[in-house]
């Protein structure tokens, strides 16, 4: 076993989209940079989350949309070609190989060390390589932790022998389970229930709460619930799993015992019950932090409670907004900040400035790729009420918009806009309905830009598109 030492201006632990973007930004600022990655460069999003899940979902959602269009419905009524869908998923995931990502990192002059990186003290990182060697790294300016999150599993008796799916297995499975039980009611649960039901699985959802997508506007979860049930998904609310047992070895069925004493059999069970930070084994104790904790940061993504201002936490690991696009937004800011501080340049810390994150508080967009799609940004009505602001809620039936008619018959959808009546700006928007994912950026601009309603009236939507809902919401507000 060999040990080598190297010194860089910046060390990035974690080579997912967030870590890659931090590295690219600080390298563009002229700082020597290295990325340490223990799995695949490109991270969870590229190989086990965003890319493979959307590849599974797209044909399911497209078929559902097409089935409403007169003249198309008989042509799309049959089953999907599962083999081709899974092959496309594999291509979208680059067959779980990261050579292209490594080539890109090299093209921006960032070094890569494969292995498990751990902090060993201020500005110090030790990397255990797959070959058993140790590389000791020292940072002149900063270390950025971008290790993301992992699935959390509840303490259910029989969990070890049941070998449940997490989100990773759900997005990478090579065959359709005949019966799939999904525990959870959040985004992963509803998206994977949508995907695998559409591919031919009999899906049962076991939901602890009394609704789906409980963190969003209630009508969003209600519409998804209706559509899943119409597709044949068995959804059981207020249900707890008390024990699991997989019978007959690896390929045996899973016996699920429920809190009401009932039992359920499934070929696979997906536990979509939350995420935890990947910080258990990155050496936090060496700098006075608690292993396994989320890393608290300020608006420049410096970790609080660590002397010297050299440690940054970017992306899901700081628990501000657990989405890839927000993590990349954070990375652009953090990389710019690190570069500025290394050069002794002033930090512009006013709201919406180049060196602070403001959108993570005010304008976080999200799309849930179910049938129907759900798209949101900013506050929900419940959050707005809790904030103490004076808010007016404006609702509109999306089926009444001319653009919805182009999606065929029986369009079901809803739009909600939240107006801060003191400031005369939009602070939250939620859309539910086919095709609404493409509306979320216009909503994000309205919220992030704090566009006054008097000016928003002059943003004329094209006819006939779903975007015309903006005009209808404004008309409804004015009465």
Q: What is this entry, summarized?
A:
This protein has 479 residues and is of the alpha/beta class. It is built from 16 helices and 21 strands.
The CATH level-2 architecture of the largest domain is identified as 3-Layer(bba) Sandwich
Residue share in helices? 25-40%
Question: Which superfamily, in CATH terms, is the homologous superfamily of the largest domain?
Answer: FAD/NAD(P)-binding domain
Rg, rounded, reads 24 Å
Q: How would the global form be characterised?
A: globular
Percent strand equals 15-25%
Give the biggest beta sheet: 7 strands, mixed
How many separate domains make up the residues?
Answer: 3
Estimated structural class: alpha/beta
> What is the number of E strands?
21
The CATH C-level name of the largest domain is: Alpha Beta
Nearest-integer average pLDDT? 95
Note the gap between the termini. 75 Å
Overall description:
β1, α1 (17-28) and β2 form a beta-alpha-beta unit. It is globular, with a radius of gyration of 24 Å. The mean pLDDT is 95. The longest helix has 19 residues, at 324-342. It folds into 3 domains: 3-42 and 98-150 and 277-359, 3-Layer(bba) Sandwich (FAD/NAD(P)-binding domain); 159-273, FAD/NAD(P)-binding domain, CATH 3.50.50.60; 372-478, FAD/NAD-linked reductase, C-terminal dimerisation domain (Enolase-like, domain 1, 2-Layer Sandwich). It has 16 helices and 21 strands. Strands 1, 2, 3, 4, 5, 6 and 16 form a 7-stranded mixed sheet that branches. 31% of the residues lie in helices and 24% in strands. It comes from Streptomyces kaempferi. Its cofactor is FAD. This is Dihydrolipoyl dehydrogenase family protein.
